[in-house]
């Protein structure tokens, strides 16, 4: 029997969903097992789960020992760091960004051993109290499973990317019991602008539904189909005037998003530059996070809600969503701010975990604190202060992770609170639009046009009406390299410029060759060649070029065939005379302008 494309993808997505569903169960069980027999057994750490989470193990029932938490979390960071360093360095940090990188830059390829290393390392990090979430690990685990299945069936790079994304959606849909959000998340998280990978939605939806169905069979019947944060959250919007304080909340969340993203990346750079073995950095980060958590716990008078800055923090978030009277503005603000610090230390140091859970806790606690403050001043406009925790969860993640649509759906599935759809949409839209400069997932690209996965997809004949002379950069000061310059001189000159391609000229300023910064990097590891090699040894003398009169369709074909970002523009009467460079981005921008002009002309004709 021969299957059509839809049937084929349905079967492949079904297979991905089954495998990811089982992997999700294994990951959750392992995380809880590590937690029960480390934090629970030796530190008597209190349970931190939400109402709808299933607990595989009973409490150890021993007295809480705060300083033992520091020892356990540090040991967990060390073990996680060793596992990742020895077996899969790409499994360090937040897994979602690694999956996004594999989609755009690695043809969807993920090493087959990454899923199981990520499962164990993340279970150790989270189970011993590291401040992180489960979204990142399960996204990378699912991505690895999808890519591995694609390799088994010898699928193309394009199909492998779809399988990878389907694995991401299946993991998120299962772990958060939110299959619709998982499907949209997999398509949306790849891009930082308002773009989406439409081809992955249907396979991801099928995989997500199957993984969700498999995963929920491991959960007790009492909570199996209950939102993670329970069925009791139900709020309403009584007046459009209530949107004003929600707008103010969005502004506060925007500033928080800017601070958090910068602080997280700065922490990553500090740990990367630290003179430590890579496998020791997660242990140091875990130690510092543990000291911050226990220090604030003691300073707050042994307030157990403050412990939400360690682990997932879902217990504290559950109380914030429920409007627990024991959570004051001070405690909520402390958890929101300190969670930024502990997550940056736990994950930014190279610990294996995700950031979605912490982002929910940060946004939820910040929203609850704002709601309480606003309610005391304007009770008629803020009748339900705990509602701001729900909206804060969504708004903060939308701004930081650049995924507003899936976030809106996900928060609805996590809380079951559909009465706050309008304010959630408002806050998510505002934080998404005005937080575009601060991107947590560094491997996200702006849109499909800029993704290496789609190079050549947008080549159309409309470019034939445009010439290179209308687009290429004229008058730009270019760094010219004389053919006799040594590699040592070239390296020092390249350090002073952002230019990527370098023309090589002779004594008459005639262009005789071309090389890129990547060509020079190939020599950097052998310093003996630095004074022996010169520009002629590095350059290529036979290179592709365009003239000002060539059309952009011809140029775009060269970009696609050669996989380069710039082409030299030369005088057609004197090919050794360089006029400038034509960039791929400028060519795509010209394409976009021509498409817009065509649409306007079509609309006028209609």
Automatic annotation (TrEMBL):
Residues 472-532, 539-597 form the CBS domain. Its main location: membrane. One of its GO terms (cellular component) is chloride channel complex. Keywords: CBS domain, Chloride, Chloride channel, Ion channel, Ion transport, Membrane, Transmembrane, Transmembrane helix, Transport. The keyword Transmembrane helix applies. It is found in: Membrane. Pfam families: CBS, Voltage_CLC. The chain crosses the membrane at residues 67-88, 162-187, 243-261, 282-300, 320-341, 353-375, 387-411, 418-441. The keyword Membrane applies. It is a multi-pass membrane protein. GO terms for molecular function: chloride channel activity. This is Chloride channel family protein. It comes from Rhodopirellula maiorica SM1.
């Amino acid at each position: 029997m021969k299957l059509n494309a839809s049937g084929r993808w349905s079967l492949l997505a079904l297979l991905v969903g089954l495998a990811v569903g089982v992997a999700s169960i294994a990951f959750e069980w392992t995380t809880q097992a590590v937690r029960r027999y480390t934090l629970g057994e030796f530190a008597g750490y209190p349970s931190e789960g939400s109402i709808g989470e299933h607990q595989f193990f009973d409490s150890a029932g021993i007295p809480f020992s705060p300083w033992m938490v520091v020892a356990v979390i540090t040991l967990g960071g060390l073990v996680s760091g060793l596992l990742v360093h020895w077996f899969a360095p790409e499994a360090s940090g937040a897994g979602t960004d690694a999956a996004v990188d594999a989609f755009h830059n690695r043809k969807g390829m993920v090493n087959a051993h990454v899923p199981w290393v990520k499962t164990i390392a993340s279970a150790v990090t989270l189970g011993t109290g590291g401040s992180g979430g489960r979204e990142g690990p399960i996204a990378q685990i699912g991505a690895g499973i999808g890519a591995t299945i694609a390799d088994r069936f010898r699928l193309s790079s394009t199909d492998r990317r779809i399988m990878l994304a389907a694995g991401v959606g299946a993991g998120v849909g299962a772990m958060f019991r939110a299959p619709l959000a998982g499907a949209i998340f997999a398509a949306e998280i790849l891009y930082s602008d308002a773009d989406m990978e439409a081809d992955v939605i249907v396979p991801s939806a099928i995989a997500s539904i199957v993984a969700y169905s498999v995963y929920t069979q491991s959960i007790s019947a009492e909570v199996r189909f209950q939102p993670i944060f329970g069925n009791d959250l139900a709020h309403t919007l009584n007046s459009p005037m209530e949107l004003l304080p929600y707008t103010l909340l969005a502004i506060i969340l925007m500033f928080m998003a800017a601070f958090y993203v910068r602080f997280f990346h700065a922490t990553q750079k500090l740990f990367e530059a630290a003179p430590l073995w890579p496998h020791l950095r997660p242990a140091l980060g875990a130690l510092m996070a543990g000291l911050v958590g226990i220090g604030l716990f003691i300073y707050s008078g042994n307030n157990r809600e403050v412990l939400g800055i360690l682990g997932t923090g879902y217990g504290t978030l559950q109380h914030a969503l429920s409007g627990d009277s024991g959570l004051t503005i001070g405690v909520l603000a402390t958890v929101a701010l300190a969670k930024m610090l502990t997550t940056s230390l736990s994950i930014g140091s190279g610990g294996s975990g995700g950031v979605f859970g912490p982002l929910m806790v940060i946004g939820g606690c910040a929203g609850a604190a704002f709601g309480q403050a606003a309610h005391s001043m304007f009770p008629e406009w803020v009748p339900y202060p705990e509602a701001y925790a729900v909206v804060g969860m969504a708004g903060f993640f939308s701004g930081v992770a650049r995924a507003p649509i899936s976030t809106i759906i996900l928060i609805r599935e996590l809380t079951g609170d559909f009465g706050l759809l309008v304010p959630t949409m408002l806050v998510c839209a505002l934080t998404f639009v005005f937080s575009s400069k601060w991107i947590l997932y560094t491997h996200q690209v702006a849109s499909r046009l800029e993704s290496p996965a789609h190079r050549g997809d947008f080549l159309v004949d409309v470019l034939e009406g445009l010439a290179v002379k209308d687009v290429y950069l004229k008058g730009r000061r270019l760094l010219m390299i004389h053919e006799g310059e040594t590699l040592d001189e070239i390296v020092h000159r390249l350090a002073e410029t952002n230019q990527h391609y370098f023309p090589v000229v002779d004594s008459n300023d005639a262009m005789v060759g071309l090389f890129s910064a990547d060509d020079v990097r190939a020599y950097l590891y052998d310093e003996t060649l630095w004074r022996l090699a010169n520009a002629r040894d590095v350059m290529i003398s036979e290179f592709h070029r365009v003239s000002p009169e060539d059309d952009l369709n011809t140029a775009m074909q060269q970009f696609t065939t050669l996989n380069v970002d710039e082409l030299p523009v030369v005088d057609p009467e004197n090919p050794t005379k360089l006029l400038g460079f034509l960039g791929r981005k400028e060519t795509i921008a010209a394409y976009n302008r021509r498409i817009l002009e065509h649409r306007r002309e079509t609309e006028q004709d209609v």
